[in-house]
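Data availability (excerpt). The following record was deposited with the supplementary files.
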Amino acid sequence: MSIQRELAETVIRRLRDAGHEALLAGGCVRDLLLGRPSRDWDVATAATPDRVLALWPDALTVGKAFGVVIVRDGPVQVEVATFRRETAYSDGRHPDAVAFTTAEEDARRRDFTINAMFLDPASGACLDFVDGRRDLERRLIRAVGDPAERFAEDHLRMLRAVRFAAELDFDLDPATAEAVRRLADRIEGVSGERVSAELEKILTAPARGRRRGLDLADDLGLLAVLMPEVHAMHGAEQPAEYHPEGDVFVHTLMCVEALREPTYELALAALLHDAGKPTTAAWRDGRLTFYGHAELGEEMARDVCGRLRLSAAARQRVCWLVRRHMTIGAWPEMREARLKRLFAEPGFDELAELWRADALASGGTTEGYEALMARYRAAQEETVRPEPLITGRDLIAMGLEPGPAFGRILDRVYDAQLERTVTTPDEAQALAREIGEEEP
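Predicted structure:
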């Protein structure tokens, strides 16, 4: 049993001892019934926030106005929410007002039936007012009540429907899916941070789920609004001898699916690695080419990462992977120094994995990837990034004048060191002096 679950059940016992109805609620109930691990253990109760705070005076009250209190035990925390019903959502995200009510009314204001159940941890009894358990058995994502009303309350729920389908390998209820199609353009008003949180769960879902989620988001019209760069890949022709799988969109989804347990940054880079192809496609000498598509793709990836409000580090990694995804294939022709510099890059493992998935999505094999990784492992037995044999201070001691040439001299000497053509400080200094004489 997880520490968070233990805390949730402790909270429930204490609330009940104080005379309040209290139950496990939402996603953790769904996961328990499916026999899968849960990320969050939430409690729903008839106790008002003030009553909860009377029992846990040091609890956080970030959502007190909406009946939500965070109970903490060291680093572990559990959300405790009072049963509530809600009024209109003027901003498409938050209710204008809430009123405390019963478990049944609370269930009917939730997003999807499979997330609207309660469970008594003591008896194991499930309180299901919306047929959520039946939908679990049918492997169906169905909105509670009128789906258009649920999505009007919070537009992000449309993308959440896709995310749950991807994570759980469930289908969408036809009425729920149709409501998403009608309202898909409203997703544009949702903040980038919230969209990114859902997209991350889609792109890091199990392999089949990733592809299903992206296909579903595209079919429902969400992808065209959130990522027109990806939607534009539809119908973008590719040379059949190199891409028997079909157009750029099909190839991209296959590439994302082929990744092995990707990080969000890697999966996002795979989704965008060929985003520049539709724009750069041109026939030259009877051949379809995509010159500069990696560089354009990097610019497009930067725009996407900006809209998703990714951190600077995450943006840098995604853009670097998109920009470099073509160059790694030339590794057998790389000089030793350049190859070692590539191995020393912090994102090398992810770049190699992107190359592997890209090859598989093009009908190829992993032979090139396996050879590269064998060379990489061999390099680890050496020092991939050794301490330089000389530094700028050494150049000054040799009588060279500090200036722009210093960086070029040190780079060339370091390349020679990586290639093992110089192996001692004396040899490095001799080469530096020779290069210095060549510099203007």
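Summary of structural features: Residues 93 and 154 are 4 Å apart (CA to CA).
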